[in-house]
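Note to self: keep these together.
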Amino acid sequence: MLRIATLALPIALSLFSACTTPQQVMDPAGNEMVLEAYSVPVGYAGIMASALSRSMAIGTEKVGRVIETPDGQLIVVAPQSVQVGVSRLIDQLNTSKPPIRTPTNIRMDYWLVHGTRAAEPSTAYPAPALAETLDAVQHAEGPMHFELFAHKVLTSLDEQKARISSDGLFIEQEASWNSAGGAITAEVSIDATGGTGMRTDIRLQPGQVVVLGEVADIAGDQPFDTLYYIVSPSVVAAR
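Structure:
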């Protein structure tokens, strides 16, 4: 762990420009903010920055800030009590000597599907990839007729945010791939026309197709009974 006393890094100067005055930098709770720089194994700066940022969010408040530098270090601005935990976590990571992570692209397929009550179960699905999942929906909720409202594909670099806005649909994701366990973890936000939407954290295997959520037409003013949010992640090999 390296303590930066002179704040010589340009990014540190921009963050702590207020330190040129005699006043200390405090968080909303009155704790003094401390700036630290940490070295992490090659390829792990992005995933650690994302994990630390999420862990520092408490409701709508954040107890600190994490920035990845161009040379792969982490700049953490947080109270000393938080820095102790960050230092311990990064020391453990450095001691374990994990394998070098190479950048990976993660593709997420999103389907929004309208479901309408039917007399008989449907076998006409909006996409072949949805057959097993929508079969399970009918088994749990009864016969349905399905129509595709939207299908969007969003690909992003491992641990990086990506967003798309098209046809009244806004999707944002931040996904990561655990090469050891094979699972893909993602934060997903979906907003659709009419004020419907959802936000969730998921952990799936590549190729797995799941219903993230569903919105029922309680008011009865839509031409369908239920809107299903469906997602499937995959890892895109680098060429």
